[in-house]
Write a structure and sequence with these properties.
alpha/beta, Rossmann fold, 291 residues, globular, 7-stranded mixed sheet
């Protein structure tokens, strides 16, 4: 009997050892890949001029943390906090303004704003928080028709637009460095075929340049502008970050990046150093609707 219980104990220990005692949904790391506390990250965010929050578009942890960071920064900054996002195109700014000020209904706003398919689950909480808190929310992205124009005609195609249309763009021609990894790597993307021309990364660059332009238009000393966008748009301190620094090298910018890993207890080497802070999410995390 004693031998039986000993075997049972060993078997039980084996079963329990096969399962993790804790299953964190995410972990937070600093620039060097060391574990970081949320509170310490928040302290650095509070001292920034601009925070670039790079999300995974279909990841609920990214979106939840965006809302939590927004709430916590508002508690510190109040009306000195300004929000902005890639998910809203700047020719719709008037619609955003009308909704935030209560001039139009939620139904009209959602019908006319060209919203992403996952708006209601992922971005609506941010917009509603801005509305309830009296915060300004900047629609920073370039109208997609102009990104398509760059993809077909290059930056030169934008010069043909009317002065009214150019109001939705940064000063032309935009600065552009084809050797930046964020653009050079796009020329090597597999499965894109004839779509990969020298204009392909330029279409990405006009988005970055436009977002940076409207971030700067809506930031001033003493304010903190928190910007939400896909992780690629600030990864490696390039893209939006690069354009912001071209215009104002003295800006204090803090970047947040998001990655997926099977094991979130330690940040992989290839995911280290991509941002000031990296949110590492379990790769089995459920995804939000994208189409």
């Amino acid at each position: 009997m004693k031998k039986y219980f000993s075997l049972l104990l060993v078997a039980s220990l084996f079963v329990f050892s096969a399962f993790k005692s804790d299953k964190p949904a995410y972990s937070l790391f600093d620039k060097k890949g060391k574990p970081e506390k949320y509170e310490k990250m928040l302290n650095q965010l509070e001292d920034a001029d601009i925070v670039l929050f790079g999300e995974l578009h279909d990841n609920p942890i990214s979106h939840w943390l965006q809302l939590e960071v927004t709430k916590d920064l508002y508690a510190q900054k109040g009306k000195n906090l300004v929000l902005g996002a890639e998910m809203f195109e700047n020719d719709n700014q008037v619609i955003m303004d009308e909704y935030l000020s209560g001039e139009i209904s939620q139904r009209n706003f959602e019908a006319e704003m060209r919203l992403w398919p996952n708006y209601k689950t992922d971005y609506k909480p941010l917009v509603e928080f801005a509305k309830d808190s009296g915060l300004y929310f900047v629609a920073t992205n370039v109208p997609r028709r102009y990104a398509s124009l760059v993809n077909s005609k290059g930056f030169e195609g934008l010069e043909e637009l009317s002065d009214e249309a150019k109001a939705f763009l940064p000063p032309l021609p935009p600065a552009y460095d084809s050797t930046l990894n964020c653009y050079a790597s796009m020329m090597e993307m597999e499965g894109m075929g004839s779509h990969v021309t020298s204009n392909f990364p330029k279409a990405q660059a006009i988005k970055d340049a436009t977002m940076a332009h409207f971030i700067l238009q809506n930031w001033e000393p003493g304010k903190l502008l928190l910007h939400y966008h896909g992780a690629y748009h600030s990864q490696n301190f390039e893209s939006i970050y690069w354009y912001l620094k071209q215009e104002n090298p003295d800006l204090k910018i803090v970047t947040i990046h998001s990655v997926l890993q099977k094991d979130v207890s330690e940040l992989k080497e290839e995911n280290t150093g991509l941002a000031d802070f990296t949110i590492c999410v379990d790769e089995d995390m459920t995804r939000t609707r994208q189409n």
